[in-house]
Structure formats: C-alpha cells, structure tokens
Amino acid sequence: MTPALTLTATEFRGVVAAAVRAPSLHNSQPWRFRLRDGTIEVYADPARRLPAADPTDWALRIACGAAILNARLALAVLGLIAGVRLRPVAADPDLMARLTLTAQRPATPTEKALCAAIARRHTNRTPFWPTPVPADARLRLVEAARAEGAWLELLIGAGPVGAVAEITHAANRLLVRDEGYTAELTKWTRTGEGSRDGVPASAGGPSPEPQDLLPSRPFGDRTRAPGRDFEPEPLVAVLGTAGDDPSAQLGAGMALQRVLLTATDAGLATSMLSQPIEVAAAREQLRLALGRFGSPQMVLRVGYGQPGFPTPRRDPAEVTDEG
Q: Do 253 and 239 touch, CB atoms closer than 8 A?
C-alpha cells in the first residue's frame, strides 16, 4: 500500500506563508487555514468581512481563491500535486476548499517561476510609464486566465478603454456617496507602522484628481509630483468567468492570482479596480460593453511602473487553526 502523502508542520507553515501573500480587498486577509489528516482546509474568516464594500462576500471569495492558487504553487514546489474541491460541505459555507495531496512530481518551470513571483507581487497604485506591454506578454496573461478556466479581455483603443473608464467612474461615484463605504475604507487605511493588515497610506498611490482616466481609492492623502499624472493610454484588462456562483468566484480568484503572478514574472506592474464589480448595474453595463458571455470579476490596469513593496501580512500562526 502506498503511504498517504502529508506535510510536516514546517512545510504547512511555508504553504500558509505563501497563501497569505494573496491580494484581498483593502488587504483585509479574510482567510484561515487548517491541516487535517494531510488535507489543507481553507476557510473564510467572517470576522474580516467588509459589509459595506462586499455585502455578498464576492471579494472575500476572490481573495480566498487567490490564496488557494498560492497554496497550490507552494505545494507544487515541494513536489506535491493537490486536488482541489471547492465548497466541499454545503452545510459549512465558510469552508472554501479542501486541498488533498494526491501525487508527487517535480515542479514545472512555470510553477517554479510563479511561486517565486508570490513574494514580489503587489498592487502598484502609482502612475505607470508609457512603455507599451509587448504582444508576447499580453498573450501570456490571456493564457494564464484560460489555464484556470477564466477569460481575460484586453481592451485595445481609446473607445473601449474610455467606455470601461466611464463605467468605473460612475460606479466609484456611487460607492463614495455611501458613508458606510467611506468609513470602512478609512478603517482599513493604515497611517502608522507595525500594522500587518490594511493598506498603508504610503502604498495608496497619489490622491485622485479630476483628470484621471481611471478612478482610484483615496488611501491617505498624497499629492502627486508635477508631471506624474496617470498614463493616458493604459492597458486595461477585464477578467471574467462563465458562471458567478460562489464556486465560480473562487475559481475567478485563482485565475486572477495566476494572471497577477504571470504579470509579475514578466516584469509588469498591476493594479485592480473592483468598483464596477461591486455595483451590480455597473457590472452588467461592463458585461454588455464587452459583449462577452459570462460575468466580469475584476478590472485590471497593467503596465510598467516604479518598483514598490508588498503590503504587510499577518504571520501564518495568526491564521491557522489546529486540525
């Protein structure tokens, strides 16, 4: 009989350390992890929900999906293949996934490269350089989304980009009129040192200005330097999935993270604009504007930018439970 595959405590900690480097709305880090009989369980953390920005838990599931993808890559580098079951227990909606070790094999070059990119990936909210993204890098991003069962629409030309920008601005205006939404944003903005969650004001990018093509969230109040406006012709991409149930949203999170890591490996900078997804009417407008079947799950800005630093994360010990 072949012995069951399992992880040591040190290996499990390393997998969790990779998983928590996933992005999450406001860097809320809404996840917990448990090792039980050689299976990694990924749970949503209800205490870190964002009731104003994310009343349906869409963003929470996107974040957990991204964490699952990171865990899969960390396991692959350990020489382990993990089978993933999303939402395996209907009676336990907080259980997002079970990752069961099914076989051993060496990691592929792609898995190694994407896993190495986990520690370097971060949201870049600053203006990008005007350097265009080459065709081969664009193709890699599209293929990364497809590898996880999603689609990625790259918008070409001022017309399509302008249409998405208009939808995104309209959604943003609606959101910021909600006092609960803005209070929640302020709650998760970190102005001091030592915080391991939330968005540091130093990483928030320059304050929004009327001429900006795409809206940004005001994490802090940073005046931009003269001549440092945002790029007038950004590469904008929309990630989407065929379905939009909770499992599809977890899958979207995995696809999103594979796209972001692929971009990082290619030397690209990225930022995310979720406002048109957070507003149901704007999301439908976005779908119609794209003419795509399925549901948009995230809008991305992609380009080349000044290197920055990942936002802080909690220690793996803070997000793990005893099996």
A: no
